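Notebook, bench 3.
Goal today: get a predicted structure for SGNH/GDSL hydrolase family protein from Ruminococcus bovis so we can plan the truncation constructs. The sequence was checked against the plasmid map this morning, with no discrepancies at the termini. Length recorded as 286 residues. Pasting the sequence as submitted so the record is complete.
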Amino acid sequence: MIYYLLFYNTAERKVFLKKYVSIFGDSISTLSGWNPKDYNVFYEGENCERSGVKDYSDTWWGQLIEYLEANLLVNDSWSGSRVTKLPNYYRLFPSGISDERINNLKKLHRNPDIIVIQLGVNDWGFGVDLLSQKPNGNERNKFVFRDAYSMMLEKLRSKYPKAQIYCVTLFSTYTPTEPVIHFPKVLYGNSIESYNKVIGEVASEYQCEVIDLHADKISIPTIDGSHPNKDGMTILAKLIARGILSGDCLHLDCQTDHEYVQIGGDPRKRVLMCSQCGKIREEELS
């Protein structure tokens, strides 16, 4: 059983009151009826039933915006999108570096006050190169993650100079209904930490805030190893709120003792995860 302990800091929270928030994401941030027309959506139909994510208030972004007492401007999230250009696509859309995606973060003549970026997991998951193998001066490669993330933030800063921009890192997951599914430490030679390091470095270059979801060693419950279930969405909302408000949020923990199960390790240590709240700890072996 999970419970949430509330830490109040209403002065900081009031900064976001009635502000307009746009979400810039992939499938994790989609929901039927809440994304621009003709966008690819994951959370619809059967996937809503499987996950329990059916309404605005079930999503991480919906809960976050309600908690901040802000307003949703646009949820510019496309299922399957990457920061980098998709291979075999003749144009940049729906990549995060496309002008169309970036322009879609506004509505009519209103620009977002806050932009929350939840992108990068599809780049990591499909083996996109993290760094340029053959740097060519100042020329950036739209198929390379660091270059593309830099291009995306540069465009966002130019288009929305007054917006507060939050870059959410990648996070680890587990699947309660399929315990045999283990979260990979490395994909195509790149660890999740290496991708998150790049997100942090590039965000700093463009004066954007970083919300490091991996640093807490909390795994998010999913239906398939990638897409959060309803409980996972709530955990994401709390962690992202904590990142935005520096501790002024609902803090996640277990009501009683953690129920740890072993999910990995080596001859020197074992890695344990709480099956209830997803917290991870390591034990040294004697």
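Residues 257-286 form one domain. Residues 269 and 284 are 4 Å apart (CA to CA).
Flagging this for group meeting.
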